[in-house]
Amino acid sequence: YFINLQYIQDFINGSWVACYGKPMEERSVKLIWSAIVSVFSIGGLVGSLSVGYFTIKYGRKKCMFYNNIIALAAAVIMGCSRKAKSFEMILVGRVLYGFSAGLGANVHAIYLGESAPRKIRGIVTMSAATFHSMGKWSGQFFGLSEVLGHEDLWHFLLAFASIPAVIQLISLQFFPEAPRYLLIDKGNQEMCNKALQKLWGRKDFKAEIEEMLEEQAAIKGEKPKSVWELLRDRSLRWQLITMVVTLTAIQFSGVSIISSYAFEVFREAGIPDLKIRYVTLGVGATEVFTSITCGFLIDNIGRRALLWRAFSCMASTMALLTVTLYLKDTISWLPYFNIFLIFIFIMFYGLGPASVILPLCLEIFIQSSRPAAFVFTGILKWTEFAVIGMAFPFLLAELKNFSFLIFCGFCLCGALFVFFMVPETKGKTMLEISEEFNRINICRLFCRKDTQNHGETILATRL
């Protein structure tokens, strides 16, 4: 996304000429470019589907190790595509990149959450979101024409992801397997204790190990669930509803569209086209900064409070942006105010949903359900990402600026749901969180039975 579109299209046409001796039709070039963009999502979906299988079979650490080898292979294939004059290599590399991203993001979050002390579990787990934001920002930075985003170096930009892959391959040698996985899944208390001492320092971890043993006892030797078993388990119904509503509110909050629409807003404010990329770089930097700030708040304020407040502010910003875009031609300074609103929206997104969703997903599911839960959320995320990508151009064509009101509605629904229905998870054990959700399920069950009994009583009285 951060490479000049024309460079890739020229390369596609040039490689076709080198192979077949005649230029490709413009329509075919655009079709191949669309395929290059979309196969990343396909790879991401397949990677997300594989989380449960690979984390159970190989463990968290080995899974991350093998995943980085895939990322490294993708980088080499894409980096060599120009020398080989093969656009097909870019397609293959994009699929592997997507698979690595879909698998790696989820496994990374699971490993962090299962390795962190309870008191700082929030900031440790959400650091994955911070580095995700930094990855997007670095792509924008290195994609500048003054860095790697020009005609002679674009293939190096495609291979840039090899650097973090190599760093993680080396650094993983100094980290142990996730302690919770070693004890709860593998039943190896000695290895768990060694992993805790390596990660947290040499002291007594009796209380932490007892907590893990309680969770192991609660599972009662149950094998990790499949996605189908997860969906059929009534005791996990409210956790699944929480993830569906929260993830849907995030995906349909409009954050992915803001990035696309920002170019027009910046242009209307009078910023030259060549300078807009630098303003966009500032938007990315804002997300990184607010994500880091959220790290200092998440274990103090809590997940629930950050989520519903951020969703509320995002809804208000979207509503205000709809009004100001409609009136932009009537007041001279409104285009500049629109730029300010975009920065505000990204700031609230980084302070809440972008950072909190990973800790929340990890904490509301116990060990036996967690891999399947990440598979489910991965499917949901990638599917909704594809839907919003396909639907928004039509919404924008029909509704113009008023299409933002739809995203405002999703943000508002997310805020109300989290405020009224989601319990706080800060500082609680996985079992305590699970018990809170169980109480919600039990209350719903009793309410349903009371309603049925009341209805039967009225019917009997009438008869």
UniProtKB/TrEMBL annotation:
Positions in coiled-coil regions: none
Gene3D superfamilies tied to this protein: MFS general substrate transporter like domains
Domain of life: Eukaryota
Protein name per the record: Solute carrier family 2
Residue ranges of domain Major facilitator superfamily (MFS) profile in the record: 1-426
Keywords carried by this UniProt record: Membrane, Transmembrane, Transmembrane helix, Transport
Residues that span the membrane, as ranges: 31-53, 90-111, 154-175, 240-263, 275-298, 305-327, 339-362, 374-396, 402-422
Main location: membrane
Entry keyword annotation includes Membrane: yes
Record InterPro entries: GLUT (IPR045263), MFS_dom (IPR020846), MFS_sugar_transport-like (IPR005828), MFS_trans_sf (IPR036259), Sugar/inositol_transpt (IPR003663), Sugar_transporter_CS (IPR005829)
The keyword Cytoplasm belongs to this UniProt entry's keyword annotation: no
Sequence similarity: Belongs to the major facilitator superfamily. Sugar transporter (TC 2.A.1.1) family.
Pfam families: Sugar_tr
Compartments reported by the entry: Membrane
Topology in membrane: Multi-pass membrane protein
